[in-house]
Design brief:
- The strands form 8 sheets. Strands 2-1-11-3-8-9-10 form a 7-stranded antiparallel beta sheet, covered by helices on one side. A 4-stranded antiparallel beta sheet has the order 4-5-6-7.
- By secondary structure, the protein is mainly β.
- Helix 2 crosses helix 3.
- The protein has 3 helices and 25 strands.
């Protein structure tokens, strides 16, 4: 199973949670808004799981560091990551555990790329589906943006996605992304093409995973569109040609955020998302907004702006002469 097994605010991502085996090799992730008061209890969960008393707590004390406490029955395990937290940015805590090999590691990365804090040890825990669901539903400190569990040792892939309700142009008219299936014909910049796969999945809706709301009518659409921050948006028009010397450019939605035409959308803890795959990079039209459906191979239909160039683009947006899609 790939993807997130459980997410804060969204519970366990399976209708048959009781039938899932215990997760003895996985990763727990939590993103924290910095700076944070000390001491602070980020998560405090007590329940019964797999017939035993279960407790899970995550707390921070500047004199000690980050402590993850796990109790199952009479067995109590503490995992400590020593050091005071940074004073700015978002910190991502990643706790990897491997009950087969018997080891664990915990690290805190600041998402601006600074060096992480790292700790390792023996005595890895296991988490039942009930335990993960209880942790996902437990009250959390305001500084904890989101948390979640995934199987394996790495985070699920950060796919480019579109919200299921976005209307996409097909030969039979607009169809919601969430209704598309493999084999459906979609209108693209390369003509009508069959969709190879429409992959629904659930992702965190806050912190570094916060989506972007492209507000109408700045990008050609009649309604707001919610997309991943990594979703490429195709822009064209006189302003684009004047500023960049290109008929059309691609820019990640996250680089468009100006709190006016494009805003970070952290209203939901969990996002239902759909990734579209045509086997090659193509542009599709979502309510008049042209979006790139990416692929691992193939030539892009336009040049991708550098990040510094997006500053000039946002300045154009701020003058009220937004470059619109073709």
């Amino acid at each position: 199973m790939s993807g997130w097994l459980a997410l804060s605010g969204g519970g366990i991502a399976c209708d048959k949670a009781d039938s899932l085996p215990a997760l003895d090799r996985g990763v727990f992730v939590a993103e924290i808004a910095l700076p944070m008061e000390s001491p602070a209890v980020l998560i405090d969960c007590e329940t019964r799981a797999a017939g035993k008393a279960f407790a899970f707590a995550l707390f921070y004390d500047a004199r000690v560091g980050i402590v993850l406490l796990h109790r199952q029955g009479a067995t109590v395990t503490r995992h400590i990551l020593r050091g005071a937290l940074p004073q700015t940015g978002i910190g991502r805590l990643t706790f990897r555990f491997d009950g087969v090999a018997g080891g664990w590691s915990m690290r805190l990365d600041r998402l601006d790329g600074t060096l992480p804090f790292v700790a390792r040890g023996a005595g890895a825990p296991a988490f039942s589906a009930g335990a993960m669901a209880a942790i996902a539903a437990a009250p959390r400190h305001g500084a904890l943006l989101w948390s979640g569990f995934a199987r394996g040792t790495e985070l699920p892939p950060d796919r480019v996605w579109i919200a299921p309700g976005a209307p996409v142009a097909t030969p039979h008219g607009a169809m919601a992304v969430g209704r598309l299936r493999a084999g459906d014909i979609v209108l693209t910049d390369q003509g009508p093409l069959p969709l190879m796969a429409a992959l629904p999945h659930r992702v965190p809706g806050r912190g570094s995973f916060a989506p972007v709301c492209l507000r109408a009518p700045f990008f050609g659409q009649q309604r707001d569109l919610v997309v991943s921050a990594s979703q490429m948006v195709a822009l064209s028009g006189a302003e684009i040609e004047y500023v960049f010397g290109e008929d059309e450019v691609l820019v990640p939605a996250g680089w468009l955020i100006d709190n006016r035409a494009a805003v970070a959308d952290d209203r939901r803890g969990v996002i239902e998302a759909v990734a579209l795959d045509f086997g090659r990079p193509v542009l599709i039209e979502a309510d008049g907004c042209r979006l790139l459906a990416p692929a691992t191979a193939g030539r892009l239909p336009a040049r991708v702006l550098h990040r510094f160039e997006a500053v000039a683009l946002r300045a154009t947006m701020g003058r009220g002469t937004m470059a619109r899609v073709a």
